[in-house]
Every structure is written in C-alpha cells, then in structure tokens.
Amino acid sequence: MQANDLRRGMAIIYNKEIHLVMDFTHYTPGNKRAFVQLTLKNIRTGKILQNKFSSTEEMDVAHLESRKMQFLYKDTNGYHFMQTEDYHTVDISEDVVGDAKNYLKENMELEIDFHDERPVTIELPKQVILKVVDSPPAIRGDSVSNNMKPATLETGMSIQVPMFIQEGTMIRVNTETGEYIGRE
Q1: Nearest partner of 121 among 175, 173, 79, 66, judged by Cα
Q2: DSSP assigned state of 96
Q3: For 127-183, CATH number?
Q4: CATH node for 3-61
Q5: Tens digit of pLDDT for each residue in 27-41?
Q6: I want to staple 163 with a disulfide (CB 3.0 to 4.6 A). Which of 65, 125, 131, 138 is the partner?
Q7: CATH T-level assignment (fold) for domain 65-123
Q8: Distance CA 134, CA 180 (A)
Q9: What does the pLDDT look like over 103-116, one tens digit per residue?
C-alpha cells in the first residue's frame, strides 16, 4: 500500500515493528513533490514518533485480527484473558497490557488485537466504571469551590475526584485521559 492510502487507526510494519497510525496529514507544497506526515505509535514500546514519507512510498500493512475477550485475573505469569467464543485462554505479559491494567476488572469484556496469533494491543472502552476504595474525607467548607482530592480505585490507580466522592462510590473514568467523568 502507498503511504498516501494510509489512514488513522491502521497498523503498519515500520523498522521491523508494528506501529499504529495515530495521525495522518498529506502535504502538497508548491512546486515540490507531495509527502505524507505520519504520527506513529510503536505497539510494543508505546513510543510515539513522527516521520515524513513520499506519498508514493510503499508501506507494509500489518493485518490485525480483533477478538472479543474477557479478562479473568492477574497473577505472576501475567494477565489472563478468555475468548468468549471458544473459551480458549491467553496469557498476556504486562508490557503488552501497558496502561490498560489501570482499567481492567475481572469479567470485563473487551477487544484484543492479534498479529500472527500474538496479542499486540488491548482496545478499552471509552469509559469504565470503577469503585473508589480509598479517599480522604471531605473537610467542611471545601464543597463551595471546585476542589479535587486524590482517590484510589479498585484497580490500584489513583486519580483526582471531586470532594463529595466517598469510599465505596462507583465512578466513571475516561480510559483515554484517566480523568473522572461522573458518578454512576
């Protein structure tokens, strides 16, 4: 496939590693040749890089197979997922799971992308519902302004929440930014 045909969300093989196309811009400067500016994210390391390619340059497309999986549990071997169709289990290492570990709850269903039968990315929903397990109590008078306080969630992640949130409250969290959205 030519670089000009790439689109956001596609996976390519660049420098012998799989990269996701995060952003795509096509430029045609005056009397010069057209080029494509790509923002790529290395799936293995999470590193983001920007690079220019000739619009006619050939790119290797990585074909990803998306499978519906259910998160079972985490142990010393990694994170264990089960395919919902045939009940086959897959162990995924922490470096592949990455920041998604902050949002995984037991029995949660999500999509995992595989390349050559190897898991490469976890597609989280836009928001998840998590329980607050530790949060200091609000101090009288703090509710007047827009103050925030730290809270630890059931997955171990710590985020800022409004002062009225108490331990045991179920809240919605944005998985892209890691921010509090609202109460459930």
Answers
A1: 66
A2: H
A3: 2.40.50.140
A4: 2.30.30.30
A5: 888 878 888 999 998
A6: 138
A7: OB fold (Dihydrolipoamide Acetyltransferase, E2P) (2.40.50)
A8: 15
A9: 999 999 999 988 88
